[in-house]
Design brief:
Elements: H1 17-40, H2 43-56, E1 62-66, H3 72-80, E2 85-90, H4 93-105, E3 112-116, E4 129-135, H5 144-154, E5 155-166, H6 175-193, H7 199-209, H8 213-222, E6 226-233, E7 238-244
Parallel strand pairs: 1-2, 1-4, 2-3, 4-5
Antiparallel strand pairs: 5-7, 6-7
């Protein structure tokens, strides 16, 4: 089953998505953290904190942070769960380079490792992790089904998958303001701050194409996970999805 979000690509409709996503994040890496704070007005920090609390409640010892980017979520997890080791993986070496510097500055190099890799072919044995997390990354997957199946594969029985992802609000009063902000304001700010303005045109388009609600929960179930749950955040502009490995 082809999912609409998988067809949304940063640059070239005819080329594969994975390589384009890697190139895009390499390009915007220097501006990525600044744009995140500006786009969400800092609310993304609260979203991450909630997801960290959910993950910490499962008491994981080994955590995989997929699409770890510049490492914010991996660092948050390591700080909140002192007994855990965190492995971050991402397509973009430029994003990882920034993340490694942040990890070293935080004094967490002994507990966080970051490496380049593809979420559709995770370089880890089956049942390697107690928790897998993804913060704002699944809409960039070339195949959601393959990505979820891989994350399920590396989870241990009883392990938790926790996803944070942006969403289009369903409230009719909120949506017009959301559309103006994401389709006009964010691309304009992206042109001013980032060297790759196309990345911030891709952003709202990819969010709009993502399956949400029951469709996302069904994808998690199809990947072999159980008890899928949805937690909407901030008027529906973000959501946390969780599921566990049987």
């Amino acid at each position: 089953m082809k999912i609409e979000a998988e067809n949304i690509k940063p640059y070239d409709d005819a080329a594969g998505k994975t390589g384009q996503v890697e190139a895009m994040f390499d390009s915007i890496a220097p501006a990525y953290d600044t744009m995140n704070r500006l786009m969400t007005m800092g609310i993304d920090r609260a979203w991450r904190r909630k997801a960290v609390r959910i993950t910490a409640a499962s008491r994981p010892a080994d955590i995989l942070d997929v699409a770890t980017g510049t490492g914010d979520f991996a660092i948050n997890l390591a700080r909140a769960i002192p007994a855990a080791n965190v492995t971050g993986i991402d397509l973009s070496e430029q994003m990882l380079a920034i993340g490694r510097r942040k990890v070293e500055k935080a004094g967490l190099s002994g507990r966080i490792t970051m490496s380049q890799g593809d979420c559709l072919a995770l370089p880890f044995p089956d049942r390697s992790f107690d928790a897998v997390t993804v913060a704002f990354g699944v809409r960039n997957f070339e195949s959601l089904q393959r990505g979820y199946a891989e994350m399920a594969r590396v989870l241990r029985p009883g392990g938790l998958l926790c996803i944070i992802e942006l969403a289009v609000p369903q409230n009719r009063l909120v949506r017009p303001f959301y559309n103006i902000y994401t389709r006009r304001v964010i691309p304009m700010v992206g042109r001013l701050i980032s060297s790759d303005p196309r990345a911030y045109t891709y952003l709202p388009t990819s969010i709009a194409a993502m399956p949400g609600g029951d469709k996302m929960l069904s994808l998690l179930t199809d990947a072999g996970l159980r008890d899928p749950r949805l937690i909407p955040l901030t008027l529906g502009v973000c959501a946390i999805y969780t599921a566990t490995k049987p």
